[in-house]
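re: ur question from earlier - yeah i can do the single chain one, its not a big deal. heres the input i used so u can compare w yours
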Amino acid sequence: MSDKKTTAILTEVADYYSAKLAEHGETPRGVDWNGEESQVLRFAQLAKIIQPSSTFSLNDLGCGYGALFDYLNTVSQDFMYTGCDVSNDMIEAANTRYANQANAQFVMASEPPEIADYGIASGIFNVRLGRNDAEWQQYLETTLDVLNNTSRHGFAFNCLTSYSDADKMRDYLYYADPCWLFDLCKQRYSRHVALLHDYGLYEFTILVKKQL
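and the output i got, formated as tokens:
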């Protein structure tokens, strides 16, 4: 995908989520999720990429107002977190919300500024904003390359599933084929890939572990 087209998509995404934040505030709906219960369930799947250790660093790509940081604080007390988002409004909200958190930083960027142990992307592939399947798939692959290049031990991401009920699917959302993405990650990134499609939401999570 050309840099010009990627920039156009990122601008559309930033405008979309800034509008959601303005409408709903620092809530799950403010980052276009239905509610807190499903958001926590989603984070629990993504966090399975983190291997038990004394400390770790993590990049959150498309961090919104930083809700994943709150979740990580419930499972670990010793980590460094960097949140990246293309929406300036989201980053301003996150910086205000976590101003006193020494282990968190938030930057307006489409790519993490540094390599971390792990990378996570939650929900950033769902809303395609009028882009066709081919365009969005290219954007998705480009972004997965970013996650791979900026994570040391592995990365995790989620997508809406193509196995969703037809009557609940919406044209402005992107429903990915989990089997295709599993194969892509196995072929391109690592032999150690897990597909989680059993936690009750119309989505799936993929974990790419670079070493066991």
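The longest helix spans residues 3-24. not sure if urs matches, ping me
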